[in-house]
Amino acid sequence: MAEPTKLPVKAEKNSPTAPMWRPFENLRSQIDRLFDEFDSGFWRAPFRQIEATFGKMPAVDFSETEKAYEVTAELPGMDEKNVEVKLINHTLTIKGEKRDEKEETKKDYYMHERSFGSFQRTITVPEGVDTDKVEASFRKGVLTVTLPKNAEAQKPEKKITVKAA
Predict the structure, then answer these.
(1) How many angstroms separate the CA atoms of 46 and 39, rounded?
(2) 45-95 confidence digits (pLDDT tens)
């Protein structure tokens, strides 16, 4: 078996593969690593919980039955007094605001935490809704808005036969 031939490798000074002394990049990577470790630690956890509760829009489902449309919104931890539902010009608007305040006192620390958040969802309502009979109910953190169809919208569908030309 023949001995492999070794060739010398020369690195040019202006080559992108040439090693360079970059003290600020090294410092930056160390600081980034420090913040990444801090971000994943215990101290960041309470802020993630607040973001999850207040920083996002509520989940909304829109469904249709034979006699009505139904909008369901998940609003965990909220009361019906903090929710407002309006129907203006075929636009359904659901607004809500949540305020949370906690206070905890132990022998070696005192914690007082306040968090606030609001949301607004706007949904275009289809034609054929009887606006005088719209109802909203709130139970166990779930808002249900029922939009009954008028008589014209409840007509059964008509099947149209396709003829060959």
Answers:
(1) 11
(2) 444 443 444 446 778 888 888 888 899 998 887 888 888 999 888 888 888
Q: Do 76 and 39 belong together in one domain?
A: no
Parent domain of 71: 58-148
The 135-139 sheet, strands edge to edge: 60-64, 68-74, 142-148, 135-139
Is 132 found in the same domain as 120?
yes
Token output for 5: 């031939």
Which is nearest to 59 in space by CA: 48, 72, 44?
72
| Closest to 145 measured CA to CA, from 71, 84, 94, 61 | 71
DSSP per-residue codes, 101-123:
EEEEE-SS-EEEEEEEEEEEEEE
Kindly report the pTM of this predicted structure: 0.55
Closest by Cα among 116, 69, 124 to 94: 124
Same domain? 50 vs 70: no
The number of folded domains in the chain is: 2
52 and 65 in one domain?
Answer: no
Q: Are residues 26 and 95 in the same domain?
A: no
Give the 3-state secondary structure of residue 131: helix
